[in-house]
Design brief:
Elements (H helix, E strand, L loop, with lengths): L1 H17 L14 H18 L2 E5 L2 E5 L4 H20 L23 H10 L1 H23 L3 H14 L1
Antiparallel strand pairs: 1-2
Helix pairs in contact: 2-3, 3-5, 4-5, 5-6
Length: 163
């Protein structure tokens, strides 16, 4: 019986000590900065920007704006996603892109290697940039909550500047 107890205790100790090799990471990042930009930031910002518009066509002036409670709820969902993306982008040690991944539009986008260098060399600016996007999106959320189409346009301009 004593041997079984020692073997069992050793097994339990080995199990717990394997976790003692270092602290579990605070965050478990899967998506890269590029993934978040492509999957969360860009589509949600685009949705918000397109929610209020005026365009002239052969058929006349077409105005787009949220009208129903469901329209406003949908806008709020997109604003919340964009707000939280600004926090997710700040998680330390998040990869900028998958290994070997390149910028899709190298004529207007920096390479992932350059972006990583910029973030790593001046993390304070990276955080400040994300906070500017967060603050602009918070203005959008306020405009949505007050159902102000003028506020949406103004906040959209601020989001565009923060991008």
């Amino acid at each position: 019986m004593g041997k079984r107890l020692i073997v069992a205790a050793t097994g339990v100790l080995a199990f717990f000590c394997s976790a003692c090799t270092g602290p579990e990471p605070e965050y478990r990042t899967t998506a890269t900065v590029k993934d978040l930009m492509d999957s969360v930031v860009d589509p949600n910002a685009d949705f918000l920007w397109k929610s209020v518009s005026t365009r002239s066509t052969a058929q006349g002036i077409i105005e787009t704006a949220p009208k129903t409670d469901d329209d406003w709820k949908e806008l709020r969902r997109h604003a919340i996603a964009l707000l939280e993306a600004t926090n997710s982008l700040q998680i330390p040690l998040r990869a900028v892109a998958q290994p070997g991944e390149k910028a899709e539009r190298s004529d207007i986008e920096l390479s992932p290697e350059v972006i990583k260098t910029l973030i790593d060399s001046d993390r304070a600016s990276w955080i400040k940039h994300n906070h500017a996007m967060h603050d602009a999106t918070a203005l959008m959320l306020k405009a949505i909550q007050t159902k102000s189409t003028d506020g949406i346009v103004e906040a959209g301009d601020q989001i565009d500047k923060a991008c």
